[in-house]
Specification:
single chain; alpha/beta; Rossmann fold; 2 domains; 10 helices
Length: about 220
């Protein structure tokens, strides 16, 4: 009996070790663990507005200063895709029980593979949205449209399609808003305004974030 119990416990620990090792190999695993550690050291604010998504949110480091009249939590991570957000939804969204969600994601999905279409991005967003509604049926959701990054301008047809489909989808849902940052970030010629981006032509300069602030701030709830 004792030997059998020992074997069971050993098998359990081996399985746990295998699971942990497999998880550690997932994209952005270390960043998610860093969020958890941060939360353990300082309890996240309650009744806050949660900004989450990819690096455009992660690099918006002065969010709290930009929106001083609101309590903000920033949980943008890596160069994440909607698939990553779905994978880590419990860790980056639901654990905070935020009073409002602001999401920027989808651009990296399209850039990740030639096989990813605007329709696929829309389906992924709908899956994430469905998960959010299951956990927080009434939380207001703001989606910031995919931006016109100069380095990804060749993907613009897919990005415009994704934006259009997500906008139409959200128009059928309560407590949602779609923020169009695509058009405001184009010049008169209809191409990306270069000075809204830093040298990599992907991430934004202060001028780019100023547009995001202007478009987003009126939609934040008190």
């Amino acid at each position: 009996m004792k030997n059998r119990l020992t074997k069971v416990l050993l098998s359990f620990f081996i399985l746990q070790s295998f699971i942990i090792h497999a998880q550690e190999g997932l994209p952005f695993w270390n960043e998610i663990q860093a969020f958890k550690k941060e939360d353990s050291l300082k309890q996240p604010a309650k009744n806050a507005i949660l900004f989450t998504g990819s690096s455009s949110i992660r690099l918006w480091k002065d969010l709290q200063q930009v929106f001083p009249n609101h309590t903000i939590i920033n949980r943008g991570f890596g160069g994440s895709s909607l698939t990553d957000m779905i994978r880590y939804a419990d860790d980056i969204i639901f654990r905070y029980n935020a009073k409002q969600l602001v999401i920027y994601c989808g651009e990296n999905d399209i850039a990740s593979s030639d096989t990813v279409t605007g329709e696929m991005v829309n389906r992924r967003f709908q899956k994430l949205f469905s998960m959010i509604r299951e956990q927080q049926p009434n939380v207001p959701v703001v989606f910031i449209s995919i931006k016109p990054s100069p380095s990804r301008w060749h993907l613009r047809t897919k990005m415009v399609k994704a934006n259009s489909l997500i906008k139409k989808f959200l128009a059928t849902k309560k407590n949602t808003r779609f923020v169009d940052v695509w058009k405001p970030m184009l010049n008169k010629a209809g191409t990306p305004e270069e000075d809204l981006f830093v040298e990599d032509k992907l991430h934004m300069s202060a001028k780019g974030y100023a547009i995001w602030k202007q478009k987003t701030e009126p939609l934040l709830i008190n």
